[in-house]
């Protein structure tokens, strides 16, 4: 059985279930496979559509290709085809352009950046979405594999 670490396991599970109860559009902020495997056990069967938002450090720590692979594998693991993923590029225009080039279709980018308008035009030209306001997501980033 896979073990996970939480800041407070009981509180995390209660918040998770409360979030699912009170939100029609389900969004999770993720940054590793522990969170995906947690969802396989705890996501109700009635859920057939979810959204993933990367945590802000994903773009600089892991990169676009890692994110795209995480999402690809998540679809297989969760057996859901209706997964929308949004890569948070903060205000890193170069990373956002690379993400568009590699096929990322949804990018969160700071609208105060001087490059926002140029990125929006590029996103439009490749039929991608550039958003400046994140959806309300349940933050799963405190969830990690337990180290024995």
CATH architecture, please? Alpha-Beta Barrel
Q: Termini distance?
A: 13 Å
What Rg, in angstroms, do the CA atoms define?
A: 16 Å
Arrangement of strands in the largest sheet: 6-5-4-3-2-7
Shape: elongated
Average residue pLDDT: 91
Low-pLDDT residue spans: none
Oligomer: single chain
Quickly count the helices: 6
Largest sheet: 6 strands, parallel
**Percentage of residues in helical conformation:** 40-55%
Task: Please outline the helices and strands.
Layout lengths: L3 E2 L3 H14 L4 E4 L2 H10 L7 E5 L3 H4 L2 H15 L4 E6 L4 H9 L4 E3 L7 H10 L3 E3 L6 E2 L4 E2 L3
Parallel strand pairs: 2-3, 2-7, 3-4, 4-5, 5-6
Antiparallel strand pairs: 1-8
Helix pairs in contact: 2-4, 5-6
How would you sum up this structure, described in words?
This protein has 148 residues and is of the alpha/beta class. The chain has a single domain (4-145), classed as TIM Barrel (Alpha-Beta Barrel), CATH 3.20.20. Helices cover 42% and strands 18% of the residues. It is built from 6 helices and 8 strands. The strands form 2 sheets. Strands 6-5-4-3-2-7 form a 6-stranded parallel sheet. Strand 4, helix 5 (93-101) and strand 5 form a beta-alpha-beta unit.
């Amino acid at each position: 059985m896979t073990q996970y670490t939480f800041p407070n396991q009981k509180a995390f599970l209660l918040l998770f279930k409360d979030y699912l109860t009170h939100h029609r559009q389900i969004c999770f902020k993720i940054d590793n496979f522990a969170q995906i495997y947690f969802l396989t056990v705890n996501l109700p069967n009635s859920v057939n559509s979810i959204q993933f938002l990367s945590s802000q450090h994903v773009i600089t720590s892991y990169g676009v290709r890692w994110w795209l692979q995480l999402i690809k594998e998540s679809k297989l693991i969760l057996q859901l085809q209706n997964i929308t993923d949004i890569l948070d590029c903060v205000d890193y225009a170069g990373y956002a352009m690379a993400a568009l080039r590699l096929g990322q279709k949804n990018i969160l980018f700071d609208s105060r950046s001087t490059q926002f308008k140029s990125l929006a035009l590029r996103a439009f030209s490749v039929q991608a979405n550039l958003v400046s306001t994140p959806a309300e997501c349940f933050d799963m980033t405190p969830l990690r594999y337990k180290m024995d």
